[in-house]
Amino acid sequence: MTDQWTRANTDWFHAAKWGTMTHFLADFASNVSAVEVPIDDWNRRAESVDVDLLARRIADTGAGYHIFTIGQNSGYFCSPNAYYDSLVGTPSRLSQRDLIADLAAALARFSVPMFAYLPTHPGALYSHALEALKFTPKWDASRTGIVPGAYLAAHDVDDRLTEGMQNWEAVIREWSTRWGKSISGWWFDGCYFADKLFLHDDAPNFRSFVEAAKAGNPDSLVAFGTGVRIPIASATPYEDYTAGELNDLWLGNKWGPQSRFIDGAQFHALTYLGKWWGEGPTRFCDELAIGYTKHINGADGVLTWDIPTGQDGQIPDDFRRQLTAIGCATRR
Known about the structure:
Blueprint (H helix, E strand, L loop, with lengths): L10 H6 L1 E5 L16 H10 L2 H11 L4 E4 L12 H7 L10 H10 L5 E6 L7 H6 L29 H18 L5 E5 L4 H4 L8 H8 L7 E4 L24 H6 L6 E2 L2 E2 L1 E5 L1 E3 L2 E4 L3 H13 L3 E6 L9 H14 L2
Helix pairs in contact: 3-5, 3-12, 7-9, 11-12
């Protein structure tokens, strides 16, 4: 019952004002075409990230927290998971290095909290994993741009994907338990079918999914991305802050926060500082980026700027410079 649920305390998040997100992926953000990357190449990429340098550069900008992708649609994830591999098999698309743990530890040395990003489903373009995890969609999901039209209605499974959701919760629980309090929050993407997958009185549902995510840190913050929604709203009483995905700042500006909380969740907006998610160059002048950050903060909201990284996980110089300008203007 939702009346027995208590959201986590978001005071520290509110005080952080703004933070950053990076998409460290085998392909690129929101890709809708299947990708094959040699496992050795993916492992080399994960190993090449200098987490100490990345953490120092994030901290130097003044960012109050950082969101980092475990993985997305391709099924390549930058952290090992024994339960996942027990079902999907090997060779694994999960890196041998636990990049999430390493970066969280590096950021902690600069007192920068870290969030983990993950879809509410396994890699939607990796059909082998979808089948192995019992997560093959029965309904037509092509309108989301996430699951290819050719890979629909392939199996006779229940609309709730009960076994698949339980497996995915177990994968998330293993990660959460391992990382513990080094992970301060989660941003879950792709929650496009909440009515089918989450809005149920019995598990699997929003509550069981959040309990899995918070297994290692009950105080961690959780949000569910349901796509771009104007005005920004809370997806469920079980989330602690709004996912707040925005493409057009002007719509976000028109429907900006009127108070700190939306249906009990901390108001939070997420948009990209570059030309698209995970891509450059910067699309705004410093004055606009600073002003929009102040606008959200001035209404007691929190803002996340998505920024690109190179193959080695490092932030391009033009983004570091603009983020530093935002930090200087908002941390005085």
